[in-house]
Amino acid sequence: MSDNSSDKIAVVLWGANNIFSIADAGDDRVYEARIKGKKLNTGTTQYNPLAPGDRVVYEAVGGPEDSHPSAMIIGRVDRKNELSRWNKKRKQDQCIAANIDEMCVLSSVQSPPFRPRFVDRALALGEYNRLTMRIVINKADQGIDDELEERAAYYRQIGYEVSLISVKEGVGVDHLLDQWVNKEILLLGQSGVGKSSLLQAIFPEQDIRVGDINMKYNRGRHTTVLAKAYPRPGHRGWIIDTPGIRELDLYGIPPEDLGFYFIDFIPFAERCGIRSCRHVHEPDCAVKDAVAQGKILEDRYDSYLNSLIVMEESARKSKDWNYNKL
Ligand SMILES: Nc1nc2c(ncn2[C@@H]2O[C@H](COP(=O)(O)OP(=O)(O)OP(=O)(O)O)[C@@H](O)[C@H]2O)c(=O)[nH]1
Ligand SMILES: [Zn+2]
To answer: Which key words are in the record (predicted)?
Structure first.
């Protein structure tokens, strides 16, 4: 549905078992909300009708004096974009977050070491979903070696923002926050890179241990809180944490299209001898030539091959794989 000027609109912060936490910038309140009539008409077949970042039209239940305000959700405002994944158990598409202004791929210099495969997979997924992306490398206090320096320079050269920060030493965090004013940011990162530490630094008054939510609403059911939005003071933007995302797969992308989502390949791929070139063993492959000439970073090509093998494997194995999502 599209929003009407008289509607009350709130942002979904998170949800579990059809109970949603929604925040209205207008009255600066957070409501515990349920869907009116149990089912929301969203026009999609996703497992979850709402995800963090969704704008919803709602009606407050009770008065403004209520210390635990509750609400009924009447509709969902059309999404400008979304990131979803395949829920293997339910065999259904599951939205991680909606209306994302920037997807931030968080990694670290050491412990855990910088993982280019994860970063490149995340970038491909973001490209596929037409998201704007930033790479943030935390733990800069541990010292950046030449290899990582080269990698960061390459990412910048192909068009991604790269930020080097140290949450521990407070370096770079304020600059990031300046860039994120009035934006909705989705944070993705592997365990241990400092995602909770970053969130805690940004929201010192919040208790970032997300396990609590799961325990409260998760008894006997198998719902994981995939993502949770934190509104910045004064609703000057939202930051969405993804505690329930342990791994990323390139859901939705047909393996033969993967090359389109490695943006540094695109100018070369147009010159490949075969139109449907996968840039593996095909003759006259301009992408492979560019790798040999150092125009494409070899390690990015390794990331591509690595993902392609995994995707082709799972496409063969699984009939659940939804090839024709788009
Ligand atoms: N040296 C250094 N250590 C950091 C920095 N930021 C976080 N750490 C440490 O890295 C470890 C992991 O940080 P967390 O914030 O728990 O990482 P996480 O990404 O939330 O990991 P999970 O909780 O497993 O998802 C902790 O011991 C932090 O103190 C940093 O900038 N520099
Ligand atoms: Zn090719």
So the answer is: Cytoplasm, GTP-binding, Hydrolase, Metal-binding, Nucleotide-binding, Ribosome biogenesis, RNA-binding, rRNA-binding, Zinc
Q: How many residues does the chain have?
A: 326
Indicate the annotated binding residues for GTP.
Answer: 138-141, 189-197
Cis peptide bond prior to 112, omega within 30° of 0: yes
- Specify the residue with its C-alpha closest to ligand 1, atom 25: 191
DSSP β-bridge partners for residue 137 = 107, 164
Calculate how far, in angstroms, residue 222's C-alpha sits from the geometric centre of ligand 1: 27
Q: Quick one: which ligand is closest to 256's CA?
A: 2
Domains of the chain: total: 3
Contact 199, 228 (CB under 8 A): no
Name the phi and psi angles at 57, rounded to 5.
-95, 130
ipTM, 2 decimals? 0.98
Tell me, yes or no, whether 210 and 273 share the same domain.
Answer: no
Q: Which ligand 1 atom sits closest to the C-alpha of 200?
A: 15
pLDDT tens column, 38-80: 678 777 777 888 999 999 999 999 877 778 899 999 999 999 9
Cα of 252 from ligand 2 centre, angstroms: 22
Among candidate residues 83, 108, 128, the one where a domain is terminated: 83
Decide which of 219, 241, 263 is a domain's last residue: 241
Cβ neighbors of 57 (< 8 A, separation 6 or more) are: 1, 3, 4, 7, 8, 9, 73, 74, 75, 76, 77
pLDDT at 122 over 70: yes
Residues framing ligand 1 (Cβ under 6 A): 138-139, 141-142, 166-168, 189, 191-197
- Closest ligand 1 atom number to CA of residue 166: 31
Q: What is the atom index within ligand 1 of the atom nearest the CA of 142?
A: 1
Contact 156, 162 (CB under 8 A): yes
Do residues 165 and 187 touch, judged by C-beta distance below 8 A?
no
Q: How far is the CA of 102 from the centre of ligand 1 (A)?
A: 22
Say how many Å lie between the CA of residue 325 and the centre of ligand 2.
Answer: 24
**256-289 confidence digits (pLDDT tens):** 999 999 999 999 999 999 999 999 999 999 999 9
Q: Give the structural domain span for 306.
A: 255-317
